[in-house]
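My main concern about presentation is that the manuscript never shows what a single data entry looks like. In essence, backbone conformation is discretised, so a fold becomes a row of integers matching the chain in length. An entry of this sort, consisting of the sequence and the corresponding backbone structure tokens, reads as follows:
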Amino acid sequence: MRDEHYILALCDELLKATASRQHRFDFLRGDPGKSGRCVRLPVDAYYEANHLVIEYRERQHSEPIAIMDRRITVSGMTRGEQRRRYDQRRREVLPANKLTLIELDYSMFKCRKKRLVRDPVADSEVIRTALGARGINI
């Protein structure tokens, strides 16, 4: 199980709901491709009843990873630059559409060799604190 799936499963448990994974909203779009089409950007987890989106930020969202970042995308920028742009777009567009966005960065959790240790009790407390800080009571 990937770290993202582990964290989102803990979120499901705490919120007592199953999120829509890789959910796409019509109002959250990427840059135009060669055809001019703008694809709908996915979010990691959407909890409709809570008007809540949770994004789990793995290493590539906060530090350069050459093998993942150097590829040029259809919009002509590196994948790393596009990831930063789309992360910022989510930060702006989701709240503008009355959705709470919570970003859970891997560095918030205990890690060993840049992988989560996976302590469900401690990790749940980190998530509970992040939810509470944004007014989500569980």
The longest strand covers residues 20-29. The domain at 3-133 is CATH 3.40.960 (Endonuclease; Chain A). The chain is about 35% helix and 25% strand.
